[in-house]
Write a structure and sequence with these properties.
Elements (H helix, E strand, L loop, with lengths): L3 H15 L4 E6 L14 E7 L2 E6 L4 E5 L4 E6 L1 E5 L6 E5 L12 E7 L4 E6 L5 E5 L1 H10 L9 H8 L6 H6 L9 H10 L13 H20 L40 E5 L2 E5 L6
Antiparallel strand pairs: 1-8, 2-3, 3-4, 4-10, 5-9, 6-7, 8-9, 11-12
Helix pairs in contact: 1-6, 3-6, 5-6
Bound molecules: zinc ion.
Length: about 280
């Protein structure tokens, strides 16, 4: 699932490419009357809160996109053509990168006033696209925990101290701290030598401080590398990000730890696959 670095990369590229563009019309695989509201509206701003994309419109509404499991936004050009096999209409991408299979599950196509199209490709169909009023956007943001890139050290330590829950699911709880998911949580806990099953309340002040710093360092590294394309996440132009080539433990089960050479294991913590080194993380 796209996490903070992936969503941040998408948001900053959107800001570069579509600011002040107007939505001319929308095509949706499943008809949506809600989306009629964005027609003729100008894109005033694009922001990230947690893992959510907030596109502010000239009407005061917000086009909200949550990529969930396999969703990603693409900017390019497609044409509706007839499938030679069954005669159904399908979107045909104009270039090779966009024709990569992962980019071909278009659920929404937004037509912009410069002729370009913004599309959402989503294999598993969990992604959410909604039009929020000002109040709805505010309410959504209010429920999120603080942003790990903006939170201060003192506030971070206070947030985690005395929490009885295991550290890994806490890091991934969007209402507690918003933006971290399975990839970066695994990486952060390896970098700090923390057992992902350890209860936050059992972590020392020093350990929490380490987690605080590692969180910022790794999320920023993720952004620098334009996100992680282990799964379906892609950049706006359909290309892959780079973080998947820098994993410390994520999806490295059975391979040697970069620190101690012991084998990385995969266990379940809070119901989620968790990668860790049993030697380095205690
Ligand atoms: Zn190790």
């Amino acid at each position: 699932m796209p996490e903070l670095p992936e969503v941040e990369t998408t948001v900053s590229s959107l800001k570069n490419k579509v600011l002040n563009r107007t939505f001319v019309c929308v095509w949706a695989e499943e008809k949506s009357t809600e989306l009629e509201k964005i027609k003729g509206k100008k894109i005033r701003d694009v922001k990230r809160f947690g893992k959510g994309i907030f596109i502010s419109l000239s009407s005061g509404d917000t086009l909200f996109v949550h990529l969930k499991m396999t969703g990603h936004l693409l900017l390019g050009n497609w044409k509706l053509v007839k499938d030679p096999l069954d005669g159904k209409k399908i979107w045909k991408a104009e270039n090779k990168t966009m024709r990569e299979k992962v980019n071909g599950f278009l659920r929404y196509v937004f037509f912009l006033d410069n002729g370009e199209k913004l599309a959402l490709s989503d294999l598993r169909k969990f992604a959410r696209v909604s039009v929020f009023s000002k109040k709805e956007a505010e309410n959504y943001i209010k429920k999120l925990g603080p942003d790990p890139l903006l939170i201060g050290k003192k506030e971070f330590k206070k947030l985690f101290a005395k929490k009885k829950k295991e550290i890994k699911p806490l890091l991934m709880d969007q209402n507690f701290i918003a933006g971290i998911g399975n990839i970066y949580a695994s990486e952060i806990l390896f970098k700090t030598g923390t057992d992902p099953r350890k209860k936050a309340s059992n972590l020392t002040d020093k350990e929490l401080e380490k987690i605080y710093h590692a969180t910022k360092i790794l999320l920023k590294k993720g952004i620098r590398l334009k996100g992680d394309s282990t799964s379906d996440y892609r950049l706006l132009d359909g290309k892959k990000g780079g973080y998947q080539n820098h994993h410390l433990v994520y999806k490295r089960q059975g391979l040697s730890c970069f620190n101690c050479k012991k084998k990385i294991e995969r266990i379940k913590v809070g119901g989620r696959g968790t990668y860790f080194c049993p030697q380095c993380q205690r």
